[in-house]
Amino acid sequence: MEGIGLPAVTTQAADFLVRLGWRLPGIVRNFCFFIRGLFLCVIEALQMFQSLLGFVAAASRPPDHFLICLGRRLHINPAHVLGIPDCLTTDVMHLIANRTIKCDTSDDVRNWHWAIFCDDNAWTEHGAIVGATTCHIPGSFDRPPRNPAEKLNMQYKTWEFQLYIFGLAPALLHTILPQDIWLNLCKLLREAHLLLGEWETEFEQLYYQCRHDRIHFIRLCVHQVNHLVREAIRNGPPVCYAQWTMEQTIGNLGQQIRQPSNPYANLSMEAIRRCQANALKSILPFLAPPDDVLPRGHQELGNGYVLLRMREKQPYRPPAIHVALLEDFVHAPLPQMHRWARLRLPCGQIARTAWRESERPLKKLRIARHIKVIIDGAVCFAEVQYFTQVAIPTDNVGEWRDANIAVISVFSAPDADLVQLSNQTVLSCKYLGEEALRVVDVTAIKSVVAMIPHRPTLPSGIIEDRFFVLERPGLDIFHFGVEEDQEDEADQQEIEAEERT
Asked: What is the pLDDT of residues 188-199, one digit of tens each?
């Protein structure tokens, strides 16, 4: 049957069955018509298959060539087709957009009202502002975002992008982005599935606008928002199969290789040894070294709260305003007390104090004295002045107990209009200093937050210096060990110096 395509043969067979069916009894005739229907379905499927034969041939070439051929069939500019690995649908690691995107010849970049960083000076200024936030982000937040104007193309980490886009961008881009674009960004960052769905729809309306020359604006990380839940149900959590998980594991194993020869054999052996070690630790847990060793001089308070040194050697004499607040809290005359510098929280973060951090230059700090605290049932943000323990009498005569307290300065409530406008993504507060001093039990402290200074234009039209809140992403499912950084080392050196004296 050379020269006759398979669909043509199938069509002739179907016609023959029709002619034959009219000459047969009823049951057989109906059966012939049924077979004919199957043949027609096969014909349609084969025609679709034949239209894809060119793609199958292209698939034998590099993957990018296949995607370009597919783009041409769909009338998409080949220059706008994403190659490998950008086309991996559920791999969000490689789908980070930068500030430049190609403009089709039928489009005009001057019509892109959202392109606020086309001016290099504006981009440089914004990058410097992002880089200056480093000292205000606690060490428990891991790597802070660097200046994107300088480091964006130099191994800018995924975690830096997350803190930058999900934490800093809503506040720093307020009044810089056009209002409709900024509101759409806030919907992306709001942790609600309904708003995420609205964000994806509005994103297409604002940027894509149903134009074929802008279809490359809809990156897969955008389109997959409405599909990620279904894909997670079908394939499991993306962390189990995303590219960054595999790369992180390979990197960890590669760090264990000590011999440069036979790297792949060594890598395989390291993986085997790690699996064996993990199996032994699972069967015999006592073999695993404790990963939660507390430093010398700590004092456990219960429920996961631990006071950590520095601790003053000499009793502290607080100012009169502090004395009045402390005595009102403990309902007794204030005895001698000593200040503590750090408090470890149940989540593993370590809250510090203005008492100690104010003694170091700002450029050497990762400020960790700002906290989220529950006061009278409401969530507030505050700056810790110091921690202390005060001995107070109990109901039993002659018995005393330690009240574990923190002296804090509470920020103002977030601007309500800005909170509502931003879908609760920008919490902008004023620092009130000693005007808002409070004394709270340390168990009211829930987490360490970053308070980033900015100067916004509020919906009321007021322009003033304020601080916006940045909470660590994923803190509710993440657990830290004992945090160690350069500030801890400096504290430890001072402790050892005191002990020697």
From this structure: 877 555 667 778
The 8-class DSSP code of residue 274 comes to: H
Pure H helices in 388-433? 416-421
Q: Which two tokens stand for residue 81?
A: 């087709």
On the question of a cis peptide bond just before residue 85, with omega within 30 degrees of 0, the verdict is yes
Residues 415, 457 contacting (CB under 8 angstroms): no
Q: Give 58-117 pLDDT, tens digit per residue.
A: 444 444 454 455 455 555 565 555 554 555 444 433 333 344 677 777 788 778 888 888
**Cα distance between residue 326 and residue 389, in whole Å:** 11
Which H or E run contains 382?
strand 378-393
Q: Locate tokens 């690691």: which residue?
A: 93
Angle at which helices 193-203 and 179-189 cross, to 10°: 140
d(CA 459, CA 108): 32
Rg of the chain over Cα atoms, rounded to whole angstroms, equals 32
Partner residues linked to 445 by β-bridges: 373
From residue 54, alpha-carbon distances to 43, 49, 288, 371 in Å are 18, 10, 56, 61
